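Worked Example 4.2. Consider the chain below.
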Amino acid sequence: MSVVRVDAGAGRLSFGELDMPCTIGRGGSCAAADKREGDGCTPLGVWPIRGVLLRQGKVEAAGIRLPWRWVREGDGWSDDVADPAYNRPVHLPRAFSAEKLLRDDDAYDVIVVLGHNDAPPVPGRGSAIFFHLSEGRPTAGCVAVERADMLRLLPLLAPGDVEIV
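Applying the procedure from the previous section yields the following structure tokens:
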């Protein structure tokens, strides 16, 4: 097991010899037990890296060792506390609120899915906490890095790796 370390206070992410700037949630960081849907906080904890979602035509999948798949039209992630599929991938459109994974910006060209609040999900304790590409501003609670840094890091990650925030 290898560890991606996030120093939320310093805005740095490291993995082995790699060290890079990162951004976190607009609400700063918070204890995982205090995380609430929509608070903008990045939850502190040890999060298993579950897999990767990639936007076809925007990134290459060559060399990726984690489980991965292309994001498709209609892919979403439930963020509605009333949804039985809360904090799970869903198909859009749907009756409940969900984050669209094919975004107009480039932030979700690479989505590393983290195991925050997923075993099992507790409604309201935070959803869609990902590791993704930076858009030059704080996230809604995720950890984000620049594209070049993500593309250097991604082939180094393997099943069993974790992210510590």
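The radius of gyration is 15 Å. The longest helix spans residues 147-153. Compare this with Example 4.1 before moving on.
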